[in-house]
Automatic annotation (TrEMBL):
The keyword Iron does not apply. It comes from the Bacteria. One of its GO terms (molecular function) is zinc ion binding. Belongs to the zinc-containing alcohol dehydrogenase family. The keyword Transit peptide does not apply. Its cofactor is Zn(2+). Residues 188-288 form the Alcohol dehydrogenase-like C-terminal domain. This is Alcohol dehydrogenase.
Amino acid sequence: MLAYTYIKHGTFQMMEKPVPEIKDPRDAVVRVTLGSICTSDLHIKHGSVPRAVPGITVGHEMVGIVEQVGEKVTSVKPGDRVTVNVETFCGECFFCRHGYVNNCEDEQGGWALGCRIDGGQAEYVRVPYADQGLNRIPEGVSDEQALFVGDILATGFWAARISEISSDDTVLIIGAGPTGICTLLCTMLKHPRRIVVCEKSEERIRFVHEHYPEVIVVRPEECVEQIRKLSSHGGADVVIEVAGAEDTFRLAWECARPNAIVTIVALYDRPQQLPLPDMYGKNLTFKTGGVDGCDCAEILRLIAEGKIDTTPLITHRFPLDKIEEAYRIFENRQDGVIKVAITEKTM
């Protein structure tokens, strides 16, 4: 089968690999019908994910059809259409029982697919702990509607959930990339008083204005001033940092009012400073870390009910055998790209 593979720092390459097989009775093998490229794939390519293993098939955003299941898998069967969770988790350890599935104690726990074990930018993928890692797609929900459930939409849902958003809040979301838009959609479900998005890209600003006209958009250079004008207590009640740019961590806490919650979703290329003397007295609560992707069934229900729609994010479509061109466009942010859908290979 075709499999897009991490060769070394800076190099991905299409390769022929064997179709994966069941290794553990809790595994499933899924035929990938639609995938995508994530910014985290670019982080692997650029050397920002030290855990990534050369030789693995990349890709962790995908949906597909179950081809085979191990004897202990009970939640799905061959022929089921499923979403694939970005995280591998056993469902039984201390962290899984408490909902912190990103910290699963299994040796393959956390972000494994497309990082430490073969992922889904391929024709087939083996999914460990399939009862936890796969969710059946409801009737009437298309592959494109479900594509982001297991990764960026789960991230946005998690970020909104842990940010403790109330109806009286002003919420600032920094970054209107794909994960930022998913976070925006999930924040809108909380019905806060006001949502402000900070973004510098003219194309992404136009995207927000077109699809979410009720949302206020500000540019980074005016963000601190504008958020203070829009807020009652000197800053946003909740700040969700999704951009991961050079100055956005500092911008996040500067825009927060005293005693606010600052949720860090972004993955940074380099360490960030926590200048405690500068923020002394703000009494901020920081929430950080990777997504706990344990809400996929709830997200799929909301999609089926028409309450979440991420299909406008898909601006480009390429077959698997043309994925290098898809990466070129996505990595260089060309042609107004937001997200690329990777379809099955051309015949």
